[in-house]
Write a structure and sequence with these properties.
Layout (H helix, E strand, L loop, with lengths): L17 H4 L3 H11 L8 H28 L7 H10 L3 H39 L9 H4 L27
């Protein structure tokens, strides 16, 4: 298992490298560190094992969502499909907070798009008032006034919900 991680050899199924099917190990290690005490160490073997597990989990859930889309003759898997797959596969404890996260994400994206449209409309109006010389010299502060994206947080259901070290899941 761990001895093949990062190998550049191709799989039997047509040339996809195993390292291309796995999440980057640095990202996996960073996520693992978020839950552990600051002085805890994580072995390379533990990171590699977790890397394979989470990659397999993602493939499992995405495969179920993809099958649903195929049956519905759709080509794009969306967030709702992932939530459906999680629930179908028995991961309701993850599907419910993920649905809330997805809803909040969509609300924020809608707000950001609306604010961006307002800025573009205001900027275009002012550009025409001041003439062509202002096309490149307009006020940069207006372009940067777009609402900064705020990381969304959601609560896990169950015994883990009191753990302050859960990163984005608390």
């Amino acid at each position: 298992m761990a001895e093949n991680v990062g190998a550049s050899a191709s799989n039997d199924d047509g040339g996809i490298k195993e390292q291309d099917q796995l999440l980057p190990i640095a990202n996996v290690g960073r996520i693992m560190k978020q839950i552990l005490p600051p002085n805890a160490k994580i072995s390379k073997e533990a990171k590699e094992t977790m890397q394979e597990c989470v990659s397999e989990f993602i493939s499992f859930v995405t495969g179920e969502a993809s099958e649903k889309c195929r049956k519905e003759r759709r080509k794009t898997v969306n967030g709702d499909d992932i939530c459906w797959a999680l629930a179908t596969l028995g991961f309701d404890d993850y599907a419910v907070p993920l649905r809330r996260y997805l809803q909040k994400y969509r609300e924020l994206e809608g707000d950001k798009a609306a604010n961006q449209d307002k800025l573009v409309n205001n900027s275009n109006t002012e550009d025409h008032k001041e003439g062509p010389s202002n096309l490149y010299g307009r006020n940069q502060a207006k372009d940067q006034a777009v609402v900064a994206s705020t990381p969304l947080k959601f609560s896990m259901i169950g015994s883990c919900s009191n753990n302050p070290n859960l990163g984005p899941f608390n």
